[in-house]
Amino acid sequence: MGRPAKKREHKKDKRETDKREKDKHAKGQHNKHHKAKEPRQSKSVPSIELEGAGLPVSEALGASTPVAPTSVVDFWFDPICPWTWLTSRWLLEVQEVRPVKVAWRLLSRSVLKDGADVSEDMRADHDADRAPVRVALAVGEQFGQEQLGSFYTALGTRIHVRKEGFGREVLVAALADVGLPTELADLGYLGDNDDALRRSHGEAMELVGFESDSPVTRIDGAAYFGPIFSPRPQGQQAGQVFDAITMLDSFSGFRELKRARPEEPILD
Predict the structure, then answer these.
(1) In the chain, how long is the greatest CA-to-CA distance?
(2) By the 8 A CB rule, do 87 and 107 touch?
């Protein structure tokens, strides 16, 4: 009777040993499989350092991740002013590194001189100066902000970078550059939208004083003439300058900060 009992105990011990071996083998296979996948898993979640990278945030995050606009910067400009062109290019840089969106608005240096006692030749020059801003206003009214910004870039590049002047042929070429109807150039010499131009100009002047020139910038409700750069800040520095201006804006008593500028702007 004793021998059969030993056989049963031996078989039971063998089954338990086999089970432990099987469990151990299965656990080893699981760990081996898990370790093999770890490198692929870590590669799928790269780490991106934005601070000090010297890149626009939108570029560092990738083109598919735009910076969400949280603050509107109103910018009144006359397309023919080279100082204004530099400020506008600074603001485009700021858009890349800070959560802001530029709203393009128009003013006119020739409207600023309305009523001034000037010669007939000077008045004729003022009238010619008004053609680009008339066309820009028409683009904004008929096609919206995005196209107005694109047209300003195309026109400003021809006027300030390529030094092509701002005659009718340049207006036509800039309109064609961004796919806008070239017949809009005719509006530069008709004056049909001068009342709207004076209203837009007057809105800017009411904010900063009627002796001000182009450009006028409004950030979070605080408006001022300028800022004026030569040369303009770029990249992360553009954002730092914007931060400094915003900090000054936050103090309601701040009024003016100015120093001599070079005779001609340093364009790029």
Answers:
(1) 135
(2) no
Cis, peptide link before residue 215, omega less than 30° from 0 = yes
Residues 6 or more apart whose CB falls under 8 angstroms from that of 246 comprise 219, 220
Angle between helices 235-249 and 82-97 (to 10 degrees): 100
Q: Where are the alpha helices (DSSP H) in 68-144?
A: 82-97, 109-112, 120-143
Model pLDDT for residues 95-108, shown as the tens digit of each residue: 999 999 999 999 99
Q: Give percent of the chain above pLDDT 70.
A: 68
Contact 72, 101 (CB under 8 A): yes
d(CA 58, CA 50): 10
* Predicted local distance difference test score (pLDDT) of residue 17: 54
How many DSSP H helices and E strands does the chain contain? 9, 4
Classify the C-alpha dihedral 152-158-163-165 as positive or negative. negative
- 28 phi, psi to nearest 5 deg: -65, -40
Query: Which pTM was predicted?
Result: 0.69
| Span 56-69, pLDDT tens digits | 433 433 333 344 45
